[in-house]
Amino acid sequence: MHFLDNGLFVGQFGTPGRAAVGTYPNNNPFASTDYIPFYQAVPGYCGNAMSPVVTKGSDGETYLYVNDEWGYGPRRCKLSGLQALREYQGTGSLGSTVTLADVTPVAIIDPAIKNGSAESGAMSPWSAFYITSSGTPAATQGTGVVSDPVFAAHGDKYFKFKVSGDSTNSRTQAGIFTNISNIDLTRGKSFTISFQVRNAPVNGMQNLITMITSLNSANGVISQVTAPTSPVLSTESWTAYQCKLTLPAAQPGFTQLQVRMQFYKDGSSPASVYEGYLDNIQVIQRQ
Ligand SMILES: [Ca+2]
Question: Of 4, 22, 72, 216, which residue is 20 to 30 A from 232 by alpha carbon distance?
C-alpha cells in the first residue's frame, strides 16, 4: 500500500503468498510439502520484505526495490503513473459551490532543477557569499563545486564551502543562495528542504543555517524563516537532513523566493580556513 505524505491512500499492489502459490495442499503452511512452493519466483510476491527503497527513475516513474526473504532475492516494482497524481483542495460553506485548486507539491530545486546536486559542475544558479562578524572580509573565500564521484553524496559532484576565520575571532560564514521567480504561492507557502551535509575532518564548520526569504520587486525582504533545528555535521559520513519552513500568510508584493544554505563557525581564527560540504539539495513547495 502506498500513501501521500498527508496520509491519503493512493493505491496498493502485490500478490499475497497464498494467492501466488495456490492453496496449501496439506492446509499447513509450516509443513515441508506446503513450504516448497514459496521458493518459486512469483510476480508481485515478496515475503517478509524488510528493506524497501523507493527511487525515481530517469523516465520519471517511481521504482520500489525490495528484498524477499522467502524466494528469489531483491526485486523491483514499478509504480506506474505516480508522477501524474494531483491534489486538489478547496473550501466553501455548506451548499455553496467549491472551486478546487491544484495544490500538488512542486519541486523547485532538485538534482535536475536549479543544480541542486552541483552536477552541472558549476555554481550557477547559486551564488556564493561570505560574512564575518567584524565586517572585515575573510582572507580566504573559496566556495565552489568539486568533482569526486567517490566522495559525493549524490552523483559525481558536491558543493564545498571554504572560508577563513574572522579577524576578531568571532563568527565567520560561507553560504550559497539562489533566487527563484515564477513561484505561485497559492500552491503553498510551506517548503520542505532536504539535503546531505558533511563536515571537514580538520577545521570543520560549526553548523548550517537553512533559510527561505520572500522578496518584493525591489529585492526587499517581506519575510524570512530559518530551520528550527540544526543538522548533525559529521566528519565521518554524509548526514541526510530535512526541515519544513513556512512563510507567513501575508506576502504583500511577493515576486521571488530566495533559498539560502549558510555554514558558520563561531570563535573562528583568521589563521585557519574552515570547510564544510553540501550535496543533493531538494526543495519542494507544498500546502
Ligand atoms: Ca551531487
Answer: 4
